[in-house]
Recover the amino acids of this structure.
């Protein structure tokens, strides 16, 4: 779904899933609070998606002042690289959950 304005009133966070420059610019236009940008690296769940890689990720993050979270192939080990590339942090399920389950 594409919105022409912010879909939620103040007090609610608006997160936008982006994959390219056009989508990041649109997130800026509607006043999103945060962006997930993906896939940065190869992922088990979206095997046909072309990964951005860190250089392209860095280029896309530079287009916005909105906090960007790296998504796709992320783990605790990729966190420092994502921060170096301009991310506020990472978004992940499998890459983080695995470490939690192993410690149980």
């Amino acid at each position: 779904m594409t919105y022409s304005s912010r879909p939620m009133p103040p007090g609610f966070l608006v997160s936008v899933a982006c994959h390219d420059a056009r989508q990041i610019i649109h997130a800026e236009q509607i006043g999103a609070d945060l962006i997930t940008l993906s896939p940065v690296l190869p992922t088990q769940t979206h095997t046909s998606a072309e990964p951005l890689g860190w250089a392209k990720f860095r280029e896309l993050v530079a287009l916005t002042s909105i906090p960007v979270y790296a998504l796709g192939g992320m783990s605790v080990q990729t966190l420092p690289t994502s921060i170096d590339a301009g991310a506020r942090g990472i978004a992940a399920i499998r890459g983080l959950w695995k470490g939690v389950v192993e410690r149980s």
